[in-house]
Amino acid sequence: MPRPIDLRLGIDVGGTNTDAVVVDNNQRLLAQFKTPTTFDLGTGIHQAIAGVSSVLDAPLDRVTHVMLGTTHATNAILEGRELLKTAVVRIGAPATLSIPPLLDWPSELRAAASAGEVIVPGGSEVSGEPIVPFERQELVRFLEEHAGTIEAVAITSVFSPVSAEHELEAEQVVHEVLGDVPVSLSYRIGSLGLLERENACVLNSSLVGVARKVVSGLNDALERNGIDAVAYLTQNDGTLMGLDYVLRFPVLSIGSGPANSMRGAGYLTQETDALVIDVGGTSTDIGVLVNGFPRESSAAVNIGGVRTNFRMPDLNSIAVGGGTKIAQDGDGIKVGPESVGHRLVTDSLVFGGASPTLSDAAVSAERADMGKRDLLADTAVDLTGALRIADERVAIAIDQMKTTRGDARVIAVGGGSVVLPPELEGASVVLHPEHYDVANAIGAAIASVSGQVDKVFKLSGRTRQEVTDEATTDARNEAISAGADPAAVEIVEIEEVPMAYLTEPVIRIRAKAAGPLSTV
Amino acid sequence: MSQEFETSLGEHELADLAVGCTVLAGGGGGDPRVGLMMAINAVQHHGPVSVIQLDDVADSDTVFAAGMVGAPTVMMEKIANGGEGRVIQDTLQARLGTRISAMMPMEMGGINGVLPVAWAVNAGLPLVDGDLMGRAFPELQMCTPHLHDIPSRPSVLVDERSQAITFDTAGNVWLERLMRNTVSVLGGCASAGLYPMSGAVARGPVIRGTVSTAVRIGRAIRTAGASPFEALDSEAEVYPLITGKVIDVERHTAGGFVRGSAVIEGTETDSGRLVRVEFQNENLVALEDGEPIATVPDIITLLDRHTAHGIVTEHIRYGQRVVLSVFRGPTQWRSEAGLRVVGPRAFGYDVEFKPVEERHAPTH
User: Ranges for the S-Me-THD N-terminal domain (chain B) (predicted)?
Assistant: First the structure.
C-alpha cells in the first residue's frame, strides 16, 4: 500500500549539475541542493539525496514520492552505448517493401541497436481490415535464424494505431519462439507515420537495458538513504510515469529536461500561460506554457540522427548563456557561441580568470552580483556592447515564440538568468522567481500524471462529438490508471486531424488528460 | 538563372529534388519524404535513374505520367511496394500494343514529384524531365493534356497487392470521379499511370524541364548557407508576400479534401500586417484586408523562415515562422482555357486571376 502523500523529492540529472529539491504536500519548497553530475547515475543521485537531506529540516523517511528527470536515455542513443540488440519486425508486406526498416539510420547506431530486420506479410488498412493475412511462419523463421543475437524485439504493423491485431499476434509468436524477451509494440508508442513510429519503437526497445539501469540506480540510491517511496520518471511532456512504465517505455523520458524547467517555472510563479526563458551556462531555451503545459513542437523530432514523431516541447534555443564568451572582433564584438560552461567559476573575469563572459558583463551592469566586480576594471572588451547584443538576441527569440500580438508575460529561470535585463522588449512583465536555479527539479517534484490517445476513428454513423467523447474518456481513464486523482483530471489538449482524399469520413484525434497525483 | 538539365539523379540530386518539390508544391502533394526514401532505396540498389528530355522520346514511343492518388496520411503509413511502375508499364503495354519507353511524374510537388523515380528505376525506364502540372493540384483532370483535349484513357490504377484496374472513361473528369472512389475501396491510396501519350503527342502538353528546375531549386537552397532565400530567388523568381508567423490554422474535411485556412501575422518589416491563406490541399488564395493578393494557378507556398523549405498544408502549425511566397504559375495554366480548369473560379472563388508579377515586386 502506498502511503498518503507527505514529502516529495524531485531530482533532475542534467548535463552539468544534478539538482534535488524537497517539497511538501502544499507544494512548498523545503530544501534544495546542487551537485555536479557524475558518470555513474546511481552515485550522482545518491549524492544529491544525501546533500538535500543535510539541508532538510525533516527526516528523509517522510519522503513518500520521488520524481526523477534524467538525460540518460538520450545520452545512450547519442553515444550508441548500452543499447539492447533489437530484432526489427515490420508487418506490412507486400506494402512498404520499397523502404526497408532503418534505411536512413546512422550506420553506427544501426549496428549498435539492430539484431536484424524483416518485413512479413500483414498489417491493417485505414479501415481496420487486414491488407493481407498475417504470415506467422515467416516471423518464426526470422526469429529462429537470429535467436542467438536477439536481446529485444520491436514490432511495427501498418496502421496499428487503427488496428493492433497483427502486432499483438506477433508478440505472442515472439514469446513462443524466444521466451521471455522484452517486446515493444509500436501502437503503444507512436502515432501515424509508419517509419517514424517504427523508429521510435526500435529506439524504445533498445533502451530497455538502460531503463533497467536507471531504475535500479534510483532504487539503490533510495534504499541507501532509507527512503521508502513511490518513484517516477518524468517524460517529455512534463508529466510522470511509474517505474514499471519506464521499463516498458523508456523512450518517453527523452526531452524531459526542458519540460521540467517550464513546469517548474509555471509552478514558481503560479502562471499557466506565459513564455519561459531558461538560461543555462551555454544556451537559452525559450518555450511557451499553455494551460500549464509546454506547447509541443510540430516538427519531426530527430534523436541521434533518427527521425521520430514524438511530441517534444517547442523550443527556440539561442547561444546566450551565463558562460557565453565575449571577444573583440575587429571593430565589433563577438558574443558566443562558445561558452566556458561549468568553468565559469574559474575562467570568467570576476572569478579571476581570463575569459570575458556574459556573466562578467552582467556584473559590470549591476544585473548580477558574483565574484569580484573590481576585476573588471581593466578589461579591453566592450562588456556593455556585448550585453546589448545578447539582449537583442533574446528579444528577437522571444518575439518568434510569441503567439499573440501585444506583450507577453515572461518567466526567467535557470542559473544563467541573472544575465537578463530587468525588463525585456516585448514582455509586459519579467518574473524572476525565487529558486529560479532549481526550477527543473521543482518541475519534476510537482509533476502531474497524464494519459493520452492518438487514434484514427472511422465515424461509421457516429457523430464527431461521440467519437471525440470516446477519445477524451480513454485519455482520462489512462491518466487515472497511471495514478492521477480522478476528481482533478482535466483534458489539457485535444486535436482533430481530418485525412485528405478519403471519401469516407475518417478522423484522427489526439487527446491528453492530466491531473495531480492522487493523494489517497 | 541557369538552364542546365539534369541527365541522371543519384542520392544527392534526389534530396535536392525533394526540397524543390516542397517549394513548387504550393502546399499540396504531401511531405515528399516517403517518396524520397523510396527513390533513395531504389537507386542504392540499381544505380542512378537516367533523365531524358522530351525531344529524346521517339514520336512513336509511348510515355505516361505516374503518381500516387489518395491521402498523403495513408501513403506515409501504407507505404508503396515499389514495383507498381512495372505493373503499370506492363498493363499499358499489353493494352496499347506499343513500346513504353519512359515515365514522368504527374505533378512536380510533394510525394509525387520524387516517388516516380523509384518506379522508373525499378522498371528500368528513364524519367522524362517534365510533368503535367508544373506544381501540385488536387484533381486528375488538372493535367495539361486536358487543355489539349488529350484523353487520360487508358489509365491504370495499381495497389500494393498488384491488383491492376484499367479506366476507360468518357472524359478526364470521369476519371477523377471513378479513380477517387476506387482508391477509397483500395484503402485510401493507390498508384496511378495516367495520360499515356506518344512522343509526338506529348510534345504539346508536357511542361518541360521541371525535374531539373526542382533539383536546381533544392541544390541552391542546400548550398546557400545563411541566405537560402537569395539562392532560391536566383533559381525561381520569388514574390514574398509577408514574413511572419502562423497565428491561426483551421482545417476540415469536405468532399474528400482537406480544406481550411491559415493566418499569418507579420513580423520584422511586415509587423502589423495580417494575411490569410485558404487551401484545398493546395494553397488557393492569399487575402489581405479581404482582398486577394495572390491566387491559383500561381504557386503560393509557405516557406520556412530559416530553411526556405516549403511547408505542406497538413504540417502548418500555430507559431511557425514563415515567408509566404508566390511563384509564377506555369504559362499553360494562365491561359483562358487553363484558368477554366485551375483558376480561382474552378475552386469556387469569384475573383479574377491577376498574375503575381502585376501585383507585386519580386525580391529584387
Answer: 13-168
